[in-house]
Amino acid sequence: MTRQTKTIRIGMLVYPGCLRSGAVMPFDVFGVANTLAGMRPAAQRIYFDAQWFGARDDKTLEVGGLSFQLKDIDLKKLDALMLPGIDHQGPFDLTPMLEQMGPELEVLRRFARMGKPIISSCSSTCLVAEAGLLDGRRATTSWWLSAYFRKRYPGVSLDAEQLVVQDGNHVSSGGVTSYIDLSLWLVGHFAGEELRQNAAKVLAMDANRYSQAPYIATAMIQDQGHAVIERARHWLNQQLDRPWSTGELAEYCHTSQRTLLRRFQEALGMSPIQYAQQLRVERAKALLESTRLSLEDITGRCGYEDVSTFSKVFKRWTQVTPREYRVRFGLRQ
Question: What residues contact residue 117 under an 8 Å CB cut-off, 6+ apart?
Answer without folding.
Answer: 79, 80, 81, 169, 170, 171, 186, 189
